[in-house]
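Data card: per-record layout.
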Amino acid sequence: MKASLSGELAYDMEKVRVKVLKNTPEIKAGGEVIGPLFKDQEVEVERWIARILKEEGYVEILDDRSIDLTTLSKIAWRENRSSQLTPLEPSFYAKARAYLKSLSEKAKEKPEVLGEKKIAESRLIDIINCRVQKIVSLALAGAQPPRDVLNNLTPEEKMLLDELSSIISRWKQEVRGEDIG
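The structure for this 181-residue chain is written out next.
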């Protein structure tokens, strides 16, 4: 699913602050040169690089700008009270997946985290259901939505809107007996 990859790519390309835990030699990654980095230095690197450096024990991620239960609850509350799609960052769904995955990992050590995970999943489903209803309405309208509305869609949602609009248009043509060629 290319839109899902687009959201993942936006997430992975975001800059995050890291603190260097041990001196790090110059590293070449994805055409970029990182370092050398020195212990206790704080730098910004792309999330995908930060993850690799963290796995290798070189850095601690400081500024993750990730999603938590409070953020999901606020978005769900805002989305349910608005007749229009509210703005979401392009990497929203990737961040939500990462948050749920982290809760699953934490629950292995602390079973009490399962309660937070269930609530988080419920909030995410509320957000998805509310937004899908609005996207279906946009697709049924048949016209190209205004730019400000399109800007409020994530890459995954833009793909959903395009697919739904196309399916609905073809179906209407078939019902009217028009040649679809």
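Known properties of this structure: The first helix runs from residue 2 to 13. The longest strand covers residues 15-20.

See the next section for split statistics.
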